[in-house]
Each structure stands twice: as structure tokens, then as C-alpha cells.
């Protein structure tokens, strides 16, 4: 009899813990899918980014699930999320069915967050390049430069100074893929050397910078949904920087909810 009583007490405890866990998860303010898949260069800072985003989730009460390479994106899977984060993804990571599922996800009013090499992904998928806004072209060596904040009203940028020194990998971008990108942060090319040459067989890829206006973060509405991109995030320790974490969470919050503007 005592054994039976203890058995039912344990069962009751398990049921309570299960229901309590579900209740806690149901109270999260939104849910994001974190994709770190690469088919080209693998950034070592990805793991630091995963840790940082999970800490942001714990701090700001949202749920994050990481997408592993072997898993497949489907419409059914994506319907449970409010935003998808591409963390330094590279080259072609989706097949045709996954592209369709992701496109429908954005068209349903959901959000996209691109971090660093997300602009070095799916160059031949025109819809994706428009979602990101601009695509990576080349970068010089990592250097310290001055960031210029263009919009302090965007979530996460409210407390930023007008400018600040930053060390990162400064992406040079190609032309706008869509009009009406809303720029958030630029880098002052007068404060670093943007010149670079990459050897590509008999051809050289040459970077000279972007001139007087060199954006590195922006957002826009696209195809029914929302998109936020930041080129920052190459170096591991950037993901411990409180300015970057505020900037990153602001983008996640906007993409997932459409609020804060």
C-alpha cells in the first residue's frame, strides 16, 4: 500500500512538472528559430553567438531553438515561430522546398534576422537577396573603426552614443536589392583602411570601400514580413559586448513582433 501511494505521488509530481513546464513555455513572449548552417566559410564566432542569443532569450523571456544542419525546414515546422535568425550562415543552405516554406513564412507576416555572414548566403536566390537588402562583396583585414548611429529610435539603439569605436570585420556590400531600406548604423571609412585585394585565380577581387556612406545595419518590411540585418558579429567577444547585445535584441524584437518603432 505504501509503495502504491509513493508511486502515485511520483506520477502526480511528474504530471505537475510537465504542466508547469508547458505553462512557463506558453508565457514566453515570442519564439525564434536560430539557423547556423553553413555550406561555405564557417565562422568560429557562431558558437559564441548561440550562447549570446540563448542568454538574450533568458533575459527577455523568449524561446529560441537551434536548427541543426541535418534538419529540414518545412511549412509545418515554421508555423510555430515568430522569426527566424540566420547567424553567419554561408552559401546555399536551402533546397527548393525549404525556400518555398521560408518564403511563405515571411509572407505570413513573420520576421527575419540576419547576422554578419547572412549576407553571404544564397546569392542566386533573388527573393532572399531582396529580403536581406544588400549582399556581401568583400572585406579587408579586421580593424578598429568608428561606428555612426543613424537612428536612435530603433529598438536597442536608444541609449547608444552618436558614435563609438568598434573592432570587427567590415563588410563591403553590393548595391541595394530593394528600395527603401531603412539604415541604422554606418561605419566611417575615414577611420580605417577599406582597401583589399583577394586573389581569385587569374582574376583579382578588389575592394575599395563604399565611399561617404557605408551602411552596416538596416531594416525594412518585405513581402508581408519584416527583415533586420547587422554586419557586426565576426569576433567572438563582440557577443559579450553590451552595446551589441542591445542592438541584436532590438533587431530580434522588431522582427518577431513588429513593435518598438
Describe this structure in words.
The chain has 261 residues and is of the alpha/beta class. Helix content is 30%, strand content 26%. It has 6 helices and 13 strands. The radius of gyration is 21 Å and the shape is globular. The chain starts with a helix and ends with a helix.
- Radius of gyration based on Cα positions: 21 Å
Mean pLDDT rating: 90
Strand order of the largest sheet: 2-1-3-4-13-12-9-6-7
Shape: globular
Count of individual beta strands: 13
Strand content: 25-35%
Give me the number of helical elements: 6
Spatial separation of the terminal alpha carbons: 62 Å
Elements, N to C (H/E): HEHEHEHEHEEEEEEEEEH
Question: Which terms would index this structure?
Answer:
single chain; 261 residues; alpha/beta; two-stranded antiparallel sheet; 6 helices
Amino acid at each position: 500500500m505504501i509503495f502504491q501511494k509513493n508511486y502515485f505521488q511520483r506520477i502526480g509530481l511528474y504530471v505537475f512538472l510537465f504542466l508547469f513546464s508547458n505553462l512557463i513555455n506558453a508565457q514566453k513572449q515570442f519564439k525564434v528559430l536560430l539557423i547556423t548552417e553553413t555550406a561555405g566559410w564557417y565562422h568560429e564566432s557562431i558558437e559564441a553567438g548561440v550562447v549570446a542569443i540563448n542568454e538574450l532569450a533568458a533575459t527577455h523571456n523568449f524561446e529560441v531553438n537551434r536548427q541543426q544542419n541535418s534538419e529540414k525546414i518545412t511549412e509545418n515546422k515554421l508555423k510555430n515561430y515568430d522569426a527566424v535568425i540566420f547567424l553567419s550562415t554561408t552559401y546555399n543552405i536551402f533546397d527548393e522546398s525549404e525556400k518555398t516554406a521560408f518564403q511563405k513564412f515571411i509572407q505570413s507576416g513573420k520576421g527575419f534576422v540576419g547576422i554578419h555572414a547572412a549576407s553571404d548566403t544564397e546569392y542566386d536566390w533573388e527573393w532572399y537577396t531582396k529580403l536581406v537588402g544588400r549582399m556581401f562583396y568583400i572585406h579587408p583585414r579586421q580593424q578598429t573603426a568608428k561606428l555612426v548611429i543613424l537612428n536612435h529610435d530603433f529598438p536597442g539603439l536608444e541609449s547608444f552614443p552618436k558614435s563609438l569605436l568598434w573592432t570587427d570585420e567590415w563588410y563591403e556590400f553590393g548595391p541595394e536589392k530593394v528600395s527603401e531600406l531603412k539604415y541604422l548604423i554606418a561605419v566611417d571609412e575615414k577611420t580605417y583602411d577599406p582597401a583589399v585585394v583577394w586573389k581569385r585565380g587569374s582574376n583579382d577581387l578588389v575592394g575599395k570601400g563604399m565611399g561617404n556612406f557605408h551602411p552596416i545595419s538596416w531594416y525594412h518590411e518585405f513581402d508581408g514580413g519584416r527583415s533586420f540585418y547587422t554586419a557586426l558579429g565576426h569576433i567572438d567577444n563582440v557577443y559579450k559586448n553590451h552595446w551589441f547585445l542591445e542592438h541584436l535584441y532590438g533587431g530580434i524584437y522588431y522582427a518577431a513582433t513588429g513593435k518598438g518603432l
